[in-house]
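Suppose you are handed a protein chain with no further information: no name, no annotation, nothing but its sequence. What can you learn? This example shows the usual starting point.
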Amino acid sequence: MIKKWVLWVSSRYINVNRRGRKISPGILSSVGIGVGVMALITVISVMNGFQMGFIEDILEISSYHIRISDITKEEAVNVRDLKGIKSIMPFLESQSLINTEYSMEPCLIKGIPADAEILDPAFFEHLNIVTGKFSPDTEGGILIGRITAYRMGVTIGDRISIIALNGGTFGSLRPENSEFTVTGIFKSGYNDFDSSLVVMSLASLFGIDDCASVEYGVKLENRFIDKAASLMIAAEAGIEQDKIVSWRSYNKSFFSALKLEKTMMFILLGLIFLVVSFGIFNSTRRTVVEKQEEIGIMRAIGSTPAQIRQIFVIEGLIIGLAGGLAGTAAGLLITLNINAILSVFAFNSGSFLINVPVRIVFGEVFTIFTSALLFCVFSAYAASRKVSRITPQEVLRYE
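A reasonable first move is to predict its three-dimensional structure. Written in structure tokens, the prediction is:
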């Protein structure tokens, strides 16, 4: 049970100035914690905006939540009817070269069915066709990315060649050009897709709408239950487990790199908390030394060492709460209005401004706030342990 006088003394020590200073060390420590929390929330939210945008583009356009290979149409229908399945669509991917009279570029050809817009609307939402449209009825119609279109100098209606290798054996392989018409240009926002992905109908790619070697891309209502969904598909649709690949496994290296990048950013920005914690530790130690007489008097009138330590721990708690709450509020405010803030600087400097994506994850905001608070409390507790060695006799002997 914390006594009221303990709280009063703690608040007094925070506001008290030392040696004529205009601002007390407690207020400075609180400001430092607030700045650290604000910076960490803002940077992590912007990083989340970029990373989650890339992740969603990859999952919706390329890897899907689950990939299934070597299954029949009947098995695909069984999967579509399972609970939690959002969509399922057949597709084929093949590496090739795209060629015009100006340049030649590597590309990834993705063949999708003619009714893909009905089977998987999210695919086209993230593909973001800015000019033209997906036109499976157009013979040889394809979609290309905006970077590909810019590099190759093509636009809607232009003809391009895609080089494929034909031949029964490796020694007899020969390049063969196939002519296609650009019917649409997309801008997904993910550079790899905009610069190398080519989308066309399976009919344009193989002359048929389906073939035995197609894969099926499955999207779930909740992508984070992919492991449970894989087991459900194997059990209820009768598909072998080794034919099912989760998005976590398919993109393991890329997602691991993103996770490492985010972890390192947490650690580097978290060093602000460490620096401020050393400041709180030293400030509390100085307070203990400067207030030895007062501590001796409080001990003489019956205060226990634990109660004296509570004074300094609560001081650290107040510093952490004040700085953490102010920093959290400022961080959220800046994050939510970051594009408006940047537009002011861009207007004043005359520079070009892009839209900065942000994504606030409240679990991470809570973790940042809690970490700042714990740093403050632990630092104050570590500095106040010396209090237990102060006795009234030693302090008051020469008073």
